[in-house]
Design goal:
It contains six helices and two strands. It is mostly helical. It has two domains: 33 residues; 133 residues, Cytochrome Bc1 Complex, Chain D, domain 2. It has a two-stranded antiparallel sheet with strand order 1-2. The termini are far apart.
Length: 192
């Protein structure tokens, strides 16, 4: 052809159109039939609340989801020394793990230091993250009391709460973080 198109172009178009239909037909021929087709694998079976509870551990900025318990700064210092300092440094200054303390006033600088005290907008995020992911070698191994104590210690190390602080589900959401207004609110209804 003079315009440079191949004579096979229509065949390629037909094959490209038929290939997805062929794959779909072969998949439907191996799928079990009937209303109980997935019963052997519990597909579509609703989870009971007690089955979901171990995974439903998220904590919202307003404190929804915080468990019972409490912890103070002094207890948090001991727990931090035993379970956190090896990675985050003796005072949370960083090491193998990220620094958790300091950095206030650096976010607008050429080298911002993003820490719990300089960057995080909600104190409840600290609790949520520690409970889910720390210590690195044993995530979700800390009790609620230990996580409250660690949260109190880290907030104190960042100058956000006094050394006499005891945190619990009522007091932790009331802690105002230095960068609270540094984030854009989620405009969707029902979101914080």
């Amino acid at each position: 052809m003079r315009d440079g198109r191949s004579k096979r172009t229509p065949a390629r178009v037909v094959m490209a159109a038929l290939l997805p239909l062929t794959v779909l037909a072969s998949c439907s021929s191996i799928a079990p039939d009937g209303p109980n087709a997935g019963a052997a694998h519990d597909i579509g079976t609703p989870l009971a609340e007690q089955d979901l509870a171990p995974w439903n551990i998220d904590v919202a900025p307003d404190g929804h989801g915080l468990p019972a318990g409490s912890g103070d700064v002094a207890t948090g210092a001991h727990i931090f020394a035993a379970k956190c300092a090896a990675c985050h440094g003796a005072q949370g200054q960083g090491g193998l793990g990220d620094p958790l303390v300091g950095g206030q006033g650096t976010l607008a600088s050429a080298k911002p230091k993003r820490t719990v005290g300089s960057y995080w907008p909600y104190a409840t995020t600290l609790f949520d993250y520690i409970r889910r992911a720390m210590p690195y070698n044993a995530p979700e191994s800390l009790s609620a009391d230990e996580v409250y104590a660690l949260s109190a210690f880290l907030l104190n190390q960042n100058g956000i709460v006094p050394a006499t602080t005891r945190l619990d589900a009522a007091s932790l959401p009331r802690v105002v973080m230095p960068n609270h207004d540094g984030f854009v609110a989620d405009p969707r209804p029902g979101r914080l």
